[in-house]
Amino acid sequence: MPKIIGGSLHEHREQVRTRVFDALRNQLYDRGFDAITLAGVAAEAGVGRTAIYNHFPDKEHLLVAFVEQEAAQYVTRLAEAVAAAPDPVEKLATFVRLQLRSLADHHLPPGSTLASALAPSSYRRIAAHADPITDELRGILAEGVASGVFPEQDPAIVVPMITGALGARQVVDVPADELGGAIDTAVAFILRAVGVKPAGNQK
Hints:
- The longest helix has 26 residues.
- Helix content is about 70%, strand content about 0%.
- It is mostly helical and about 200 residues long.
- The relative contact order is 0.10.
- Helix 2 packs across helix 3, helix 4 runs antiparallel to helix 5 and helix 5 packs antiparallel against helix 8.
- The chain has 2 domains: about 55 residues, Homeodomain-like (Arc Repressor Mutant, subunit A); about 140 residues, Orthogonal Bundle (Tetracycline Repressor, domain 2), CATH 1.10.357.10.
- The radius of gyration is 20 Å and the shape is elongated.
C-alpha cells in the first residue's frame, strides 16, 4: 500500500499535487514542455509513478491542472492588489506591474507552442484563464473614463493593445538589476497610452 503523506487522504492528495506542480514548474523552466515526461516529474517530486498517474493520466492533463491552479492564485492576488489601489491611475499601474512581474517569473511555452502541443479543448481551458485578467483591465479603464481620469476610448481596441504590449517578453528579458527600471518604463508607457498626463503637465 502506498505511503500516505500527511495526516489524511485529502492532505496526502494536496501534498502530492504540490510536489508534482513544483517539479513540473522546475522542469518547464529548465527543459520546456516537450521534454517533460510524467515519470521524470514523478521522480523529481519524490512520488511513485502510480501515484502521479492516479492524479494525471498524461502530461497534458498535468499542465492544464498546473496552469489552472497558478492562474486562479494569480487572479486572486491581482484583484486584491488592484482593489487596494486608491484611484484608476494607480490601479492601472498596479495591474501593469503585476502582469510584467508574472511574465518575468513564469516561462510557460508561448501560446503558439501550447496551441500545437495541446488538444484544442485543453488549450481553450488554459486560454480561458486570461478572461478574468482581461475583465480586470476593462474595469480599470471603465472606472478611469467614468471618473474623467482617462479620456473616452474604445476598450475593444485599447484592451487588446495593452495586453499585447504586456505579453512582450523583450520587456522583462533583462538582467535582474534592470528589471525594476524596465517595468517602470513600461508603466509610464501604458499610462501615456491611455491618456494619463505626466505629473507636472496636467494642462
